[in-house]
Amino acid sequence: MGPGFRGSAIGQFRAALSRCVHHSCMDYGRRELRHDRHAAGSLDERYEGAEEAGPYDAVIARHSLEREALAAESEAEEESRRETHDLVAWGIAQVENDNYRAVLEPTYLEGLPGDEIAER
């Protein structure tokens, strides 16, 4: 902007100022990104005195532990779903009325909507 600005309306000034702020923010972000890349170092870099330990080994190990924990949670949730499904199936089997059971099984065990059950 500066001395090259030739606008005469406040809207033009506002638009030009907005573009200047946007470009300044982008320049600042690029400088910070360049600095962060430089400060992060190389993946092949090793700590002094340690042949196997790199600067990212701790992060990789933590990420691996988090993934294992998520996998364990997922397995536990799946086991819980199976137990719930088995309990619901057992409960439906206890219903003496065949017509009720014919509606409950596709609804809760197969997950069918009411329209499809009615068509049967």
Topology (elements, then pairings):
Elements: H1 10-40, H2 57-93, H3 98-109, H4 114-119
Helix pairs in contact: 2-3
Structure description:
By secondary structure, the protein is mostly helical. Among the domains are: 7-41; 80-120, no CATH class. The protein is 72% helix and 0% strand. It contains four helices and no strands. The longest helix is centred in the middle third of the chain and has 37 residues, at 57-93. 0% of the residues are buried. The mean pLDDT is 83.
Keywords summarizing the entry:
mainly alpha, 120 residues, flat, single chain, 4 helices
Query: Approximately what portion of the residues adopt beta-strand conformation?
Result: under 5%
The major pleated sheet works out as: none
Mean pLDDT: 83
Overall 3D form: flat
Q: Please state the CA-atom Rg, rounded to the nearest Å.
A: 32 Å
Number of helices: 4
- Structural class category: mainly alpha
Can you give the helix content as a percent range?
Answer: over 70%
List how many beta strands DSSP finds: 0
> Roughly how many Å apart are the termini?
73 Å
Low-confidence parts lasting 5 or more residues at pLDDT below 50?
Answer: none
- The H/E string reads HHHH
In short:
The chain is mainly α. Helices cover 72% and strands 0% of the residues. It is built from 4 helices and no strands.
